[in-house]
Amino acid sequence: MTVQDRIKRCKILMLMDEYPELAKEIGLSNESFFTNNKSDNVEVLKEPDIGF
């Protein structure tokens, strides 16, 4: 899958979330799933709390 294909699919998914009735009417459904095998070794960086 090319980067362009991936971007197009992400845009479609975002529009499906924004217009769920239309997506259902034309027969679209989100069947995607994600696996994240590398997340065990990754630390999430947080922005420092500067008191605002």
Distance between the termini: 43 Å
> Which structural class matches the secondary elements?
mainly alpha
- Please mark out the parts with pLDDT under 50 across 5 or more consecutive residues, or reply none: none
Mean pLDDT: 79
Largest sheet: none
Shape: extended
Description:
The model has no long low-confidence stretch (mean pLDDT 79). This protein is an all-alpha fold and 52 residues long. The longest helix has 16 residues. The chain has 2 helices and no strands. It is extended.
Short overview:
The protein has 52 residues and is mostly helical.
Write the layout of secondary structure elements.
Elements: H1 3-18, H2 20-25
Structural key phrases:
42% helix; mainly alpha; 52 residues; 2 helices; single chain
